[in-house]
Amino acid sequence: MTNTRAPKAKLAHSIAATASHARTTQKKPARKPVSGKTVGALQPGHKAPKKRATDPTDPQRVRTILTRLAEHYPNAVCALHHTNAWELMIATVLSAQCTDVRVNLVTPALFRRFPSPQKMAKAPQEEVEELVRATGFFRNKAKNIIGAAQRLIAEFHGEVPQTMEQLLTIPGVARKTANVVLGSWYKIAVGVVVDTHVMRISQRLELTKATTPEKIEQELMRILPQESWIDFSHRIIHFGRVTCIARKPRCADCFLEDVCNSNDKTWNTD
Ligand code: SF4
Questions:
Q1: Is residue 176 annotated as part of the catalytic site, yes or no?
Q2: What is the pTM of this model?
Q3: Of these residues, 195, 231, 258, 265, which one is catalytic?
Q4: 195 is annotated as an active-site residue
Q5: pLDDT per residue over 31-52, tens digit each?
Q6: Residue ranges lining ligand 1, Cβ < 6 Å
């Protein structure tokens, strides 16, 4: 793999410095090309430096990103398998530090054995632990999902509530899970789901300089139109899985390449 985190700033500086130097010291011989290449020439596979947008969160640029995501992934949805709000909430709790694929392998047996909050509220902890073991942190997750079921029975008539404030009182449920349930199931946009893909790609696209999910969510809520909050996360998560991959982003195939100034750009993913 060739990471072309091209030192564009250095390159530009080098070209400018060379030109300036040549102007002020005319008598000195011109710098010789290295290995037959013109000084400052781009290496094969490198792309010419682009003019940097003055403000990466400029509404026009944000609109371009949203439009292209919508064009490429018009039907992106939550990848966690579920048939109701309860299953989605539990699947999302299990997805912490775990892939959606792995969660989807575990939840069919879990929901067959404990299909409702009423059943889960009375589940033996050891049995739930065994069923969710493959998702990691299984003791804590088992404790949380039993506790979540008990809380739904005690406070919400066995139903998954529809407000952020109520959801945040449920064991194991933080803003990400609450946003997933509210957005994907109830279609209520009160925040932006910030998972590892949304976090990484929002930073790569310079939509945020923040480094914590909470702050990134606040910044995304500030620059994205509210009607895009739900789909933005679905689409960015899909984009992060197929194109803007963490270690080897497929920049040559990327439909956002011309608006991306990331230092992580990679052209060769062999
Ligand atoms: S150009 Fe590369 S780093 Fe930038 S968004 Fe596309 S895949 Fe990600």
A1: yes
A2: 0.80
A3: 195
A4: yes
A5: 333 333 333 333 455 554 555 5
A6: 204-205, 243-244, 249-251, 254, 256-257, 260, 262, 264-265
